Amino acid sequence: MPAEPTTRPPIAVFDLDGTLAETAGDLIGTLNVLMKREGLAELPLSQARGLIGAGAKALIRRGFEAEGRALSPEDHERLFEAFIAHYGEHLADTSHLYPGVVEALDTLEAAGFRLAVCTNKFEGQSVELLRLLGIGHRFAAICGRDTFPVYKPNPSHLTGTIARAGGDPARAVMVGDSRTDIDTAKAAGIPVVAVTFGYTDVPVTELGPDRVIEHFSDLAEAVRALVPVEAA
Prior knowledge:
Largest sheet: 6 strands, parallel
CATH architecture of the largest domain: 3-Layer(aba) Sandwich
InterPro entries: HAD-like_hydrolase_sf, HAD-like_sf, HAD-SF_hydro_IA, HAD_2, HAD_sf, PGP-like_dom2, PGPase_prok
Radius of gyration: 18 Å
GO biological process, one term: carbohydrate metabolic process
Cofactor: Mg(2+)
Strand order of the largest sheet: 5-4-1-6-7-8
Protein name: Phosphoglycolate phosphatase
Order of helices and strands: EEHHHHEHEHEHEHEEH
């Protein structure tokens, strides 16, 4: 019998919060529940969007620091556990996909790309949120903060996601919205497309991504420039 083909498909790996989905309302809503419990003022969504992008622990620390409260390690861990519990019950109260996501996924799949998610949200909550948003079945792997011993910006989080999805790391691209995503991809030696509409405290154009897009309708062209679709 002839040997089975060993060529792995090209792969597009997406961040979740601020990249595939607008989740700030539910994340900041949960943060504000904790702030209120601790006797602090709630943060306006417009002010707090830039605090997202490095996971829940960083969001909590940044949020409390914005109100002048430094957290002890014990308090930080206590609040983190409370955050995860509350957020798990409010994953998609207001969260929704960005315009053009489904069409962009369709285009990449038609070109032969495998799809995956690499996020600092916990894996279980990521899987459930993507299911609620109607696209969970599109991804060969959904890898979160707790999937591997390390997480973004450690490059092994990204390379591990590619391996778990069965993609070709030599024909891979990362799509994200923050310094964390860009630094992770650079450290892994993988090109990165940054979206302008996500969660970042610095414009992504200043962080050195390989391509920048303002809408998902531009993703296929950006990916084609980095990972030739003809090779798929």
